[in-house]
Amino acid sequence: MVDRVSMYVGGRHCPAMGGEWLEIENPADSRAFACVPRGAAEDVDQAVEHAQRAQFAWASSAPSQRAAILERLARMLRERLDDFIQMEVRQTGRPLREMQAQLARLPEWYEYFAAVARTHEGRLHPFEGDFLNYTQRRAIGVVGLVTPWNHPLLILTKKLAPALAAGNTVVAKPSELAPITVVMLAELFTEAGLPAGVFNVVTGLGAEAGKALCEHPGIAKVDVTGGTETGRHIGQLAGAGLKGFAAELGGKGSVLVFNDADVRAAVSGALFASFIATGQTCVQGARILVEKSIYSEVVEDLVLRTEALRLGDPLDPATQIGPLVSRRQMETVLRYIDIGKQEGATLSCGGERATEGDLEQGYYVRPTVFTNVSPGMRIDQEEIFGPVACVLPFDGEAHAVELANATPFGLAGSVWTGDIARAHRLARQLDMGIVWVNTHHRIDPSSPWGGFKDSGVGGENGIAAYESYTRVQSVVVNTSSDPFDWFAEDGKQKRYS
Ligand code: NAD
User: Helix (H, G, I), strand (E, B), or coil: what is residue 428?
Assistant: First the structure.
């Protein structure tokens, strides 16, 4: 018997109107341990109605009132963190040590955007003549958030915190693979004092509940994180409805290692960039670009340390690499490994499913390193979203930049060098939304996050994220005491612009 976790609409739990359920599997043992409602268009309609009813009061409440609720939520989340961590591990298969580190930081997002709501100021504009012109930020309305499974709570939080702080109400559609912690968060928000209907969660499939949400006329903005094709599809739906649109999409990140870097630290960075989350992150350092003179040294150390990574039960604190999220994801990764071999790359380690002991029950693939990879191979260009890293040599700075920019994606990358001038010079030349120097995958609520090229539209984090959840309203006030009568035949020079 598996647990039934209802969705959360209008401040209470409810099943889908169609009465169907979707199973949620633990990827570490491939067993279903829970099920969630298979929401459809009628469930989305109901959630949007609740969000619309709650919208006026929430948007008109004082920013300090909204901030106080977000701050209370942050406190309560810290107290209950362990329940969220355990569930996040069960539904995603990501190791406990990763989810402990990631979720411990979530409250900071609610605190940061509470602070932005408390302190954000309107502007005064130098309007010519006897006029006072100011602009104020108004909430957009009801926003739809569509989120993936790889960081279920973090990604939802990056969108939800600014959306609520700015006075919007929300309908979220979490991934069908990992929706439970998002429902748990909605319950906690009610306990923290969020009025019913302000944050609603409809569970279900992308092609059903997700699509219905993105085309619903009551939704003013859609913000999605997911694959690039999903983003394109949702962008079309949003465009047809003249809705606001933001998208955080796929990536194929590069790690650039120069011969003046601290090589040991660079390999540690590459290992982290490639294999954290079992390679299932959008900013994965899937391409490791290494200066020719240190190529052999880096490859040798990287392969040795990759082979030493510990696969195991994600709930075991000693585990470093968990399973992939689903059978489908595992099959995709194994298919790409075959493609890499057929393309003539050298498989330097990994390259197969791990089946020893209990691992056989889950979707484990050994961390894999390909060398002798040529630019343009499919394994070098396409997002695999698994523990597969390609190592390519480069000859000098210009070649490194050319290689790093030669993919359709432009999300993130890191530069490892001892020369700080080179680091800044390269940052300006790399066609990507985030460049890390001598580090990788560092994130903060205040630090803008978003992709160039096929990696997305718009961005998250920072004051810009709060503003992206608002519309600018311009108020023009006549401060002149002179009467104005356009049609009076009084011989006075008139102006209207
Ligand atoms: P996905 O595209 O399969 O699904 C993402 C969400 O979109 C899910 O909730 C899904 O149900 C929904 N969806 C799918 N098709 C839809 C449709 N036609 N209409 C409406 N909704 C639809 O992605 P995923 O497998 O859950 O996540 C992995 C992808 O997300 C990777 O490509 C990864 O790079 C990307 N990602 C990007 C970032 C970033 O910040 N740029 C962060 C995390 C993940």
Answer: helix
Give pLDDT, residue 497. Answer: 63
Q: Check pocket membership of 250 for ligand 1, CB cut-off 6 A.
A: yes
The radius of gyration of the chain's CA atoms, rounded to the nearest angstrom, is 25
Residue 187 CA, distance from chain mean position = 22
| Residue 493 pLDDT | 80
Give the SS3 label for residue 125.
strand
State the number of CA atoms in the 13 A half-sphere of 310 facing the CB.
11
- Whether 135 and 96 have beta carbons less than 8 Å apart is answered as no
State the Cα–Cα distance between residues 411 and 425, nearest whole angstrom.
18
Rounded-to-integer distance, Cα 175 and Cα 87, Å: 14
**Among 245, 79, 66, 253, CA closest to 162:** 66
The pLDDT of residue 205: 98
Q: Is 379 within 8 Å of 370 (Cβ atoms)?
A: yes
Cα(369) to centroid(ligand 1), Å: 25
Please report the pLDDT score of residue 243 as a whole number: 98
- The answer to whether 273 touches 414, Cβ cutoff 8 Å, is yes
Neighbours of 211 (CB within 10 A): 20
Nearest CA to ligand 1 atom 10: 206
With vertex at residue 272, the alpha carbon angle to CA 271 and CA 276, rounded to the nearest 5 degrees, is 120
**Beta carbons within 8 Å of 331's beta carbon, 6+ residues apart:** none
In the chain, which residues have pLDDT < 70? Answer: 1, 497
Q: Ligand 1 pocket test: which of 230, 237, 460 has the largest number of ligand atoms within 8 Å of its C-beta? A: 230
Cα(18) to ligand 1 centroid in Å equals 24
Cβ neighbourhood burial of 364 (10 Å; 0-12, 13-18, 19+): buried
Is residue 108 packed enough to be buried (19+ CB in 10 Å), middle (13-18) or exposed (0-12)?
middle
